[in-house]
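[INFO] parsing input record for ATP-dependent 6-phosphofructokinase
[DEBUG] input buffer:
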Amino acid sequence: MDYMKNAMNQTIKKIGVMTSGGDSPGMNAALRSVVRTCAFHGVECLGIYRGYQGLIEGDFKEMTARSVNNIINKGGTILKSARSQEFRTVEGRKKAYEHVKASGMDALVVIGGDGSFTGGMVFNEEFNFPVMGIPGTIDNDIYGTSSTLGFDTALNTVVECIDKIRDTASSHNRLFFVEVMGRDVGHIALNAGVGAGAEEILIPEEDMGKDRLVESLKRSRESGKSSSIVVVAEGDKTGDNVFELKDYVEKNMPEYEVRVSVLGHMQRGGSPSCWDRVLASRMGVKAVESLLEGKTNYMVGINNNKIELCPLDMAVKGKTEIDTELLRVSDIMTV
Ligand code: ATP
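[DEBUG] output buffer:
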């Protein structure tokens, strides 16, 4: 495999890697991949603790292939993550650059969401410093990749929870509203809702209206269903919030006992799925090798099962779209 190593541009000798913003399952697997790809190509690797705040404080640790043993299966991030207000200031970023220069770092891999990518772009613009992004967020709300790291794991977590809720719902003729993450996008709600066989799925992209919801639930009841699961994305606009929806439905359908379950932060945790581990491994390799080829200001994404690069500014500015075909599938399944 020496031919591969030789093909790489060796002006980059030391790469920094950080996890930033909200954590997601698969971040550790991506870190492991970045560190090992560096080792494979004979490039030094520095782990940066607590995202941009660690960059400002020079909180770095040299990482070798053995520093990342036994983390591929771990949720969260061993580098810790943070949100840094100071990095939003010019002074903060100057401090960061001083530490970067002193450490001999030549390029940076940022594993995080669109905010973290924006930070990376600003840093690149100000100091002409090479940056590569890996999308780590459970929401799958990043343009330029059909899947972000952690999305698949979060879906599996949500489906497992809803399966359990369904057991109790069907034993007691109950209607459950299950709130899942997704302030601006309904990817988790739609995919997990279809996967868990929800009767209704409420997402921010579509305002169903409370009356149509009640009508639909009534139809479902008349068709012989004695319990129902409604999956609601956090940012859904059908009601003010999931509790208000519960009150409204209870008032209009007194025959149902209505309950609410908010899944919350458990959706972010847990051991990454096989898909997320493989994706993280592939993305880490692409991120490091792209930097070594002299590329900068890209995010690594996956589309049609091919790992490819998307310019960071497009990844930040672009909007992901809800899958209309999946919406239709969901409608048909609730006949
Ligand atoms: P999540 O999807 O979980 O919210 P994120 O990466 O979008 O993850 P943010 O909190 O938006 O999370 O951003 C992470 C960090 O990136 C911020 O705390 C800040 O340090 C840096 N950052 C974000 N936007 C900017 C910006 N405009 N300029 C400089 N730094 C920024």
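[INFO] The chain is about 45% helix and 20% strand.
[INFO] shutting down worker
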